[in-house]
Amino acid sequence: MSNYIFLHGLQLKTKIGVPDLERENFQVLHIDIDIKLDSNLTFNEDDIDQTIDYAEIEKLILNIGNNHQYRLLESLGEEIIATIKSRFLIEGIELKIAKNKILPHTDFVGIVFKR
Question: How many domains does the chain have?
């Protein structure tokens, strides 16, 4: 049995990039995150305390992006994952972060972490 929550299409406005010029302006990152919950959980009680509130995950990611300036998507991703794992009992995470129109012939570039 597997239980997941997910947030797909989260838009995070932040400053990120390796060249200094790229970090001068805000960019919109596109984030998809799938969080594997404890596989022993069942949701018979209709109680939010038995799961993870989507709004808490969104707030956490937005807070990290708003309060830090990174050069690498990888560094941002590591902090998001570490923070979620430190605050919630989970079995795994898949995190995808993409930014668009960075390369002239490519719509999106990004990272995918599976932990």
Answer: 1
CATH number, domain containing residue 40? 3.30.1130.10
Structure pTM?
0.90
Radius of gyration of the chain (CA): 15
pLDDT surpassing 70 at residue 41: no
d(CA 112, CA 110): 7
Q: In Å, how far are 22, 31, 60, 90, 100 from 83, measured between CA atoms?
A: 26, 16, 8, 12, 25
Domain range for residue 69? 4-114
pLDDT on residue 21: 86
Coil, helix or strand at residue 59: helix
Whole-number pLDDT of residue 53: 92
Residue 109, SS3 per DSSP? strand
Rounded Cα distance, 11 and 15, in Å: 13
Neighbours of 85 (CB within 10 A): 14
